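Suppose you are handed only these lines of text.
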Amino acid sequence: MGQQHYHRPVLAERAVGFLITIPHGIYVDCTVGGAGHSQRIAESIYPAGKLVCIDADADAIAYAQAQLRSYSHVIIKQAYFDQIDVILDSENYCQCRVSFLTWGFLPFRLIHQ
Ligand SMILES: C[S@@+](CC[C@H](N)C(=O)[O-])C[C@H]1O[C@@H](n2cnc3c(N)ncnc32)[C@H](O)[C@@H]1O
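From them, the structure of the protein bound to S-adenosylmethionine can be written out as follows.
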C-alpha cells in the first residue's frame, strides 16, 4: 500500500511534544498505522527510549516496518492492542510509562474488502 492509503496525522508535532515527558521511557503506539506519530516519537526518544508499535492490520505493519526500519530502538508487532501486556512482558518491558492510541480504521479496507 502506498502512503496515500494511510492516515496523515494532523498536529502530530504538538501531540508528540505533549506525550514525551521522559526521553528514556518506554512508549507504545497501540495503532501505528502509517507510522506518522511513531516516526516523531522515535526521533524524540532516540537514543535512550524504546518504542513498541502495534497494529492489527498486516499491511499497516508492513508499511510501518518500512517507514521505521532505520530506528533500532523501535519494535513492531502485529497484534490487537488488547494484547499490550503480553507484548510488553515478552520484551521484558515491565515499566511502560506511556501508551498512545489513535483508534480508527483504514478507509481502503472498506473499498477493497
Ligand atoms: C487512524 S490509523 C492510526 C494512525 C497512526 N497513529 C499514524 O500516525 O499514522 C488507525 C489504525 O488502528 C488500527 N487498529 C484498529 N483497531 C485496532 C485494534 N483493536 N488493535 C490494533 N490496531 C487497531 C488500524 O488497523 C489502523 O491502522
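What can we learn from it? Residues 6-7, 9, 31-37, 54-57, 60, 80-81, 102-106 surround S-adenosylmethionine (CB under 6 Å). The longest strand covers residues 50-55.
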